[in-house]
Amino acid sequence: MSPNAPITQDVLTIPRKLPEGKINLVGLTRDQLRAVLIEHCTPEKQANMRTGQIWQWIYQWGVRDFAEMTNLAKAYRVQLAEHFVIEIPEVVTRQVSEDGTRKYLCRIAGGHEVEVVYIPEEDRGTLCISSQVGCTLTCSFCHTGTQKLVRNLTAAEIVGQVMMARDDLDEWPVPGAPKDETRLLSNIVLMGMGEPLYNFENVRDAMKIAMDPEGISLSRRRITLSTSGVVPEIARTAKEIGCLLAISFHATTDETRDVLVPINKRWNIEELLEALASYPNVSNSERITFEYVMLDGVNDSDEDAHRLIDHIKRHNIPAKINLIPFNEWPGAPYKRSSNNRIRAFANIIYHAGYASPIRKTRGEDIMAACGQLKSATERARKSRKQIEAEAGLSK
Ligand code: SAH
Ligand code: SF4
Question: Which domain holds residue 327?
Fold first, then answer.
């Protein structure tokens, strides 16, 4: 992007009313759900109880049809179906990688598409969800960044990705059956398409629903929000969501970070570190994950590793550093650092007393790895030349 181009937050929302005039109940907070029930077919006296019952049907049992809500009177179920729907994004394609990673292409209102990735591991399963179609930011190493923002996802579309994955994993509990503690979908990372802190309210509402104990009931310690560094929203995330935080750090000088993560021109490394230093106390959470993509000859020197440690130590931030081997995509202006370089970098960090896991690349054969997501139907693809020019790499 040109140095003076504004880093904008395009807030585009779509009305909750669907074309046929029905309201989607998915994604409403408990208060909003109660309000729409009262507005339509529910006496105020019963509203609290009905809200609780319908909430459990939707988020605990995964029911999509009012007729199945057997603890509600038949006539009331018919009324509900007249006014409301329970709708989640539709799966268009589903690809399964050799390593078991699943990538879903989902269609949302307006014909837009987002990608969702499920990564199974030995003792847990992580769902990587998207918060926007495209991204307004233009990090030069990120495939999503080459797709202009189309719109913010609604809370329904964000929590709907989790519900969609539970459908596909066939993981909704059956009423009456013994509770199964093993979970295929045990963790959520907001690391798909988009900048979650530029869609704050919808992300917050969706994550609150995912954490609600009478529903999907994931602990806030199993949800990680990744941001490129929207500094003013970091404190808000601590207070209003309280999940774990990951930061796309990627460079140790402002000069390099300005190119890799252009939001750095708005809030630089020092301002970002100050915001991060207060996060753990306010959110009562643990370490912050520093994500660091390894780009050959750009940010991977020993000096970079030492500077990174200095930054973290100077601000006394409880941290773990997640090294991400760069995933290539067509037209990408960078190369992945060699395995030896990545290991040497990791060693310096480890000897300074910080965990420095190297992220295992998953689902690369189906373009599901970090930074490779982009709607397949997206036509307005930037040319390689344009990407290089914006990354300051053109001669
Ligand atoms: N917008 C948010 C969340 C989505 S990106 C953010 O920037 O944090 C999720 C992670 O994947 C980020 O750390 C991002 O920097 C990283 N990433 C993006 N492109 C990548 C690529 N090509 N290879 C490896 N990691 C990439
Ligand atoms: Fe957007 Fe994150 Fe990609 Fe940057 S790394 S362009 S903020 S999705």
Answer: 90-390
